[in-house]
């Protein structure tokens, strides 16, 4: 999964180039919490790629193995340089104030409300324990969650369609609307998170640990 998403993370965050300015001391709590999640995500990605790389190096020198090895080595260099935050995926259950990407970078359009508002449905992977043949095992189910997506143009969207959205989103307040059977339903509001707000806090905050250089 990481190998599919990582190039997107790098390309979409290219505007956040590192600089030599001194780090800010008063980091807003929301930004500090988000950066901690990004750092956890970065370290986890490094461990995963290092594990994959060790397996590839045991497979010999076939052309496809060599190409994949070179790509992973490049990804590891970028991760260890720590020039850009590695954005996590929103987790389940979604909570107000959370920042991240949509699960699987996609959503289903349920209803278009205006030029920049629509009701969307996202599917969160959730680990569940089950018992089969008297043995416990873990399985993944996909839990649907409806959001009001606000601030994203709907001109190219269609009700019933699936959209790929690579932006980083923030979960805001709640929105209540009437359903077709005249019942009230309340959903969380998604808005695009401006990654430029990280610029005073992320670049130059710290050097990678010595074992990652």
Strand order of the largest sheet: 1-6-7-4-3-2-5
Biggest sheet: strands, sense, closure?
A: 7 strands, mixed
User: Helical region count?
Assistant: 3
Low-pLDDT residue intervals, each spanning 5 or more residues: 1-24, 206-213
Sketch the topology as an H/E string, one letter per element: HHHEEEEEEE
Mean model confidence by pLDDT: 84
Q: Tell me the overall shape.
A: globular
Describe the protein in words:
With 213 residues, the chain is α+β, with helices and mostly antiparallel strands. Helix content is 28%, strand content 31%. It has a seven-stranded mixed beta sheet, with no helix packed on it. Helix 2 (29-57) runs antiparallel to helix 3 (63-81). The two termini are 25 Å apart.
Question: What would you say about this model in short?
Answer:
The protein has 213 residues and is α+β, with helices and mostly antiparallel strands. It is built from 3 helices and 7 strands. The protein starts with a helix and ends in a 21-residue tail after the last strand.
Essential attributes:
213 residues, alpha+beta, 7-stranded mixed beta sheet, 28% helix
Question: Layout of SSEs?
Answer:
Blueprint: H1 2-12, H2 29-57, H3 63-81, E1 99-100, E2 106-114, E3 117-132, E4 135-150, E5 162-164, E6 169-178, E7 184-192
Parallel strand pairs: 4-7
Antiparallel strand pairs: 1-6, 2-3, 2-5, 3-4, 6-7
Helix pairs in contact: 2-3
């Amino acid at each position: 999964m990481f190998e599919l998403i990582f190039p997107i993370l790098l390309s979409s965050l290219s505007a956040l180039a590192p600089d030599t300015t001194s780090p800010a001391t008063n980091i807003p709590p929301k930004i500090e919490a988000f950066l901690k999640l990004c750092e956890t995500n970065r370290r986890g990605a490094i461990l995963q790629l290092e594990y994959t790389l060790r397996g590839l190096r045991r497979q010999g020198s076939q052309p496809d193995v060599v190409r994949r090895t070179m790509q992973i080595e490049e990804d590891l260099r970028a991760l260890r340089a720590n020039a850009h935050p590695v954005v996590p995926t929103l987790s389940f259950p979604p909570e107000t104030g959370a920042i991240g990407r949509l699960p699987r970078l996609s959503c289903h359009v349920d209803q278009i409300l205006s030029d920049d508002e629509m009701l969307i449905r996202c599917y969160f992977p959730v680990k569940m324990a089950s018992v089969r043949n008297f043995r416990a095992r873990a399985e993944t189910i996909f839990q649907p969650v409806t959001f009001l997506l606000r601030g994203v143009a709907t001109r190219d969207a269609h009700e019933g369609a699936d959209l790929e959205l690579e932006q980083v989103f923030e979960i805001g307040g709640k929105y209540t609307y009437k359903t077709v059977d005249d019942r009230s339903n309340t959903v969380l509001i998604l808005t695009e998170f401006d990654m430029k707000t990280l610029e005073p806090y992320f670049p130059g905050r710290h050097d990678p640990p010595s074992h990652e250089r």
